[in-house]
Structure formats: structure tokens, C-alpha cells
């Protein structure tokens, strides 16, 4: 199974890890009270950690013991890196060599399109570069999280935390930001820091770096060390498309949230211009899949929730710690629509052509994601009787593994928690598995039916 379908193997391992983490979080040792955590809450937290979502049904600052917090931290690190990538890194560490099988495993974890029999030899990361990519994944995880910890810890000490509590909470926030999880270990959450330019900037940078993806970080590293603008061709199409689309969505969300919430007394009304700019920009970055919110979505206008729904549904970059259908998926769909409107037979961007098989996978992922969101929304609407905008926001936040919440996760019954947990699972592993399955499906027929065109549009 590892050789024939790495994505299916990853799905099974992912699910097994969720079950293991559920058992660990159910232990009395994991709860601060010393009591057994109910199954629905333990499972929900395990899925949220392994799928790096950040939604919670319990108070993350008070419910878990130190052991429980360590279990959660390990879970979100595994979920953020990726199962097959982590396995390849461990194999490389133990054997000090990387065979073809390990390279293919890691490659399929970063790009499901490699499963296609007709895949082009031109890839975002070549097989010969997989070793460098794995080193970049491990190094970036350690360096970025340690750097974020070093920047956050002094800020918490200024607020009265002792060195060790500040260091622990700083590392927790750093890992939560870079893995785009969204868990906050601080009592009261981030509300006391809603106008803190320093801390919010550090967290936003961490979320942005996690959301663009390890292949892009690897490409940027090669770009910087390989001569900068003189070696601009080394910054490949995937990196350019991911960075440009991500920045466009951040700016759109920034303007939309700031404009729509400026006169809302429950959120930004009464804030100064610079405070509004800071809060709206920060929340826009969090819709990449960060989830470390400073504004209560339940107090936002319905129009703002709809904009954030769209941003969370798209999510971050491919092979990143973020969720959603991914920015490159939407970029390919828009490029296809533009090419069709101009009468071109192929998609072109940044002086490169994109094969039609990529469009096939992008359309499949979009339909798959929309179907999951629709099914979960209808189910929870029937269960809860809550307004559509509240339920839809929670469902898309779960599917996009974002973690921003209207509070619905903590209010629903146990069956509702299971529905949201299944949505998180499908959003995190379902799109990758579907992409690999569609890319690997390539059959030839010995006959062809007569062509007939239906009316479309």
C-alpha cells in the first residue's frame, strides 16, 4: 500500500493517530481535574490537534494538565508536518540515507499530482531535491518555532509571567501559530493583546510562514542563497503562484473586514484608524488557517462572516500546515476561466503553461470541498436550529482547519461534535487523498462514443 497508494496509507496512519490521541486525552492524567475527559471532547480535541484546526469544546487554558498539553503539542506538530514527510525525516535520521521509496513517499506528501501516470517531469520539487526539502522542513520547523518562541516569551514576561511559564506558553503559541492550529493556552485568550502591535505581528508572521507551505519556504531558501534576482528562474511556478495568490487574498480580506466592521459597535467601532487597520489585517491573515483570533466572529456582521467563509474555504498553500482547498487550486480555476474567456486552449501564467490534468484535479477538489461543507451544514442546521451564517461559519472553519469560532463548537451536543470532527478530518486528509486518487486515475479506452454537446450555462 505504501508503494501503490501513499495517500491512502497516510489516511490510515492519520486516522490511527487520531484514535491513539483520543485514548491519551481520555486518561485522567491528561485533565487538570484528574477526571476522565468525555469521549466526545477527547475525540474532538484529538482531531482538532492532529488536523491542526484549533476548534475546541473545552477551555484549552484550564482543562488540560501539563501531560495533556504535551500530548496536544506533539499532535499538532505531527499534523503540521505531515505523516509521510515525518516518516521520511525519521528514516533519513536513522539510516542517514534516502532511498527511492522514501523519496517517492515524501514527494507524494508534498504533491499528490505525482501519482499521475501522465505527470510532467517538471515539478515544484524534483526527486533529487527531496532530501533538501526534508531538511528544509525539519530545519524550518525548529528554527521558525524557536525564533517565534524567543520573540513571544519576553512579551509574556512583561505581563507578569515567570520565566518558565512564559517560555512554555511562548513555545505553545509559536507552535500553534506556525502549524496554523489556533490553540491558545492563555487564560482569556488573546483578548488582552487585541491592540498589541508587537505580539500580533509576530503571530501573523508565524501563521503566514506556515500557510505558504514547505515547498515555498524551500524555494525561497534556494532563491536567497542562489543569487537572488539573478537566479529568478529558481523560484518556480508553484512558489510564485502561491505567494501572489496568498498576498492578494490577504489584502482583499484586510480591506473587506476593515470596511464592513468599521461601524459595528460589537467589533471595530470606536477603534482608531491604526487600530482598525491592525485588527482587520491580523484577522485577514488568520483566515489563511491560523485561527488565533482577537475579534469574536459571533459579533461580526453577516456580510463579514460570508467574506471570511470564502477566505477560510480557500485556506493556504499546498503542502503547508494550512487547510482549505488551497490557494493554488483556486488560482488554477481562475486561470482556466480566463483562458476560456480569451479563447486559449491552455492555461498560461508567469511564462509557463499549466497542463489540463491539473485543472481536472482542481475541479474535483472544489466539488469535494463544497459537498462536504454542504452536507455538514445541513446536518448541523437540523441538529442545532441556529442561524445559517453561524453554522456555515463553524463548518467552513472546521473544513478549512482554521479554528476561528462563533462559539458553536462548545454548545453543540455530542452528535454535533462528531459531525464537526468528521468535517475537520475530511478537510485535512480528504482533499489530499482525492487529489492523489484523481491524479492516479488514467485509463485508456479502445473505443469512443459519438460526440454530442449538452447546453451549458
TrEMBL record:
Protein name as annotated: Potassium transporter Trk
GO CC list: plasma membrane
Keywords of this entry: Cell membrane, Ion transport, Membrane, Transmembrane, Transmembrane helix, Transport
Residue intervals passing through the bilayer: 42-58, 70-94, 130-154, 166-186, 198-221, 241-260, 310-338, 358-381, 388-406, 418-440
Species whose genome carries this gene: Leucobacter massiliensis
InterPro entries given in the database record: Cat_transpt
Gene Ontology biological-process annotations: metal ion transport
Origin: domain of life: Bacteria
GO molecular function, one term: monoatomic cation transmembrane transporter activity
Membrane topology designation: Multi-pass membrane protein
Amino acid at each position: 500500500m505504501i508503494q501503490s497508494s501513499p495517500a491512502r496509507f497516510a489516511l490510515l496512519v492519520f486516522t490511527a493517530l487520531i484514535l491513539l490521541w483520543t485514548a491519551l486525552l481520555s486518561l485522567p492524567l491528561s485533565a487538570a481535574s484528574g477526571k476522565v475527559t468525555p469521549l466526545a471532547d477527547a475525540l474532538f480535541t484529538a482531531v482538532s490537534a492532529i488536523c491542526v484546526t484549533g476548534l475546541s469544546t473545552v477551555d484549552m487554558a484550564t482543562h488540560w494538565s501539563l501531560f495533556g498539553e504535551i500530548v496536544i503539542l506533539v499532535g499538532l506538530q505531527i499534523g503540521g508536518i505531515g505523516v509521510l514527510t515525518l516518516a521520511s525525516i525519521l528514516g533519513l535520521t536513522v539510516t542517514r540515507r534516502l532511498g527511492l521509496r522514501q523519496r517517492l513517499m515524501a514527494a507524494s506528501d508534498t504533491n499528490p499530482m505525482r501519482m499521475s501516470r501522465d505527470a510532467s517531469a517538471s515539478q515544484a520539487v524534483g526527486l533529487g531535491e527531496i532530501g533538501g526539502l526534508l531538511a528544509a522542513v525539519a530545519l524550518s520547523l525548529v528554527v521558525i518555532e524557536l525564533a517565534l518562541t524567543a520573540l513571544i516569551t519576553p512579551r509574556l514576561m512583561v505581563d507578569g509571567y515567570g520565566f518558565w511559564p512564559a517560555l512554555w506558553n511562548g513555545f505553545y503559541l509559536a507552535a500553534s501559530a506556525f502549524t496554523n492550529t489556533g490553540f491558545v493556552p492563555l487564560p482569556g485568550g488573546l483578548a488582552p493583546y487585541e491592540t498589541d502591535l508587537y505580539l500580533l505581528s509576530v503571530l501573523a508572521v508565524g501563521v503566514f510562514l506556515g500557510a505558504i507551505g514547505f515547498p515555498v519556504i524551500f524555494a525561497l531558501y534556494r532563491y536567497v542563497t542562489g543569487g537572488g534576482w539573478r537566479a529568478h528562474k529558481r523560484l518556480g511556478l508553484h512558489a510564485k503562484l502561491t505567494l501572489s495568490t496568498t498576498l492578494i487574498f490577504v489584502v482583499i480580506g484586510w480591506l473587506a473586514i476593515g470596511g464592513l466592521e468599521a461601524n459595528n459597535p460589537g467589533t471595530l467601532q470606536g477603534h482608531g484608524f491604526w487600530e482598525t487597520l491592525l485588527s482587520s489585517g491580523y484577522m485577514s491573515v488568520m483566515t489563511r488557517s491560523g485561527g488565533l483570533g482577537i475579534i469574536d466572529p459571533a459579533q461580526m456582521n453577516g456580510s463579514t462572516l460570508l467574506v471570511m467563509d470564502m477566505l477560510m474555504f480557500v485556506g493556504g498553500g499546498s503542502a503547508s500546515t494550512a487547510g482549505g482547498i488551497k490557494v493554488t487550486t483556486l488560482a488554477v480555476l481562475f486561470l482556466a476561466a480566463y483562458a476560456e474567456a480569451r479563447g486559449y486552449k491552455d492555461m498560461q501564467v508567469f511564462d509557463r503553461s499549466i497542463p489540463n490534468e491539473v485543472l481536472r484535479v482542481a475541479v474535483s477538489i472544489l466539488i469535494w470541498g463544497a459537498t462536504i461543507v454542504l452536507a455538514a451544514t445541513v446536518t448541523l442546521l437540523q441538529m442545532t436550529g441556529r442561524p445559517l451564517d453561524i453554522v456555515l461559519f463553524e463548518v467552513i472553519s472546521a473544513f478549512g482547519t482554521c479554528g476561528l469560532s462563533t462559539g458553536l463548537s462548545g454548545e453543540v451536543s455530542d452528535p454535533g461534535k462528531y459531525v464537526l470532527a468528521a468535517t475537520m478530518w475530511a478537510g485535512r486528509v480528504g482533499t489530499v487523498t482525492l487529489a492523489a486518487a484523481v491524479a492516479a486515475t488514467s485509463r485508456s479506452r479502445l473505443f469512443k462514443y459519438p460526440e454530442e454537446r449538452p447546453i451549458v450555462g
